[in-house]
Input
Amino acid sequence: MRNTTLCYIEKDSSYLMLHRIKKENDMNKDKWIGIGGKFEDKESPEECVIREAFEETGLTLTDISYRGIVTFVSDEYETEYMHLFKSCSFEGDLKECDEGVLEWVKKEKMYSLPAWEGDYIFLELLETNEPFFSLKLEYVGDKLVSAILNGKKIR
Output
């Protein structure tokens, strides 16, 4: 099982998104995702998301909100606990990312981007200011077959 972070960095009614088009063997290839990555040894979720955001974007997050944990279960990949954050406060200038192309995307366009189906569920939870939540997403291939929010099946 692996632990990762994901952060939606917000500015001017847009989220900073990463279009994953640069790596060959990438489970997120061609998808649009938020900013984040794998924990390093002895890191807390907060330390990981701040480090990953800086490494991928050049931005230093100055305020983060820990919004939830998403458990990904897949028939193809290792089970993953993804710690979900949102940030509206940062410093620095965007840099080029070696994992894909960074782009500010208006919130209303988020649901038309190619992404994991379950991403749309937790994006909606972020937008409706759902209190801290636990979301379990189960995939067969790229197909979402089950979604459980705070212990209750929603899909």
Observations:
- The chain has one domain: 2-153.
- The longest helix spans residues 45-57.
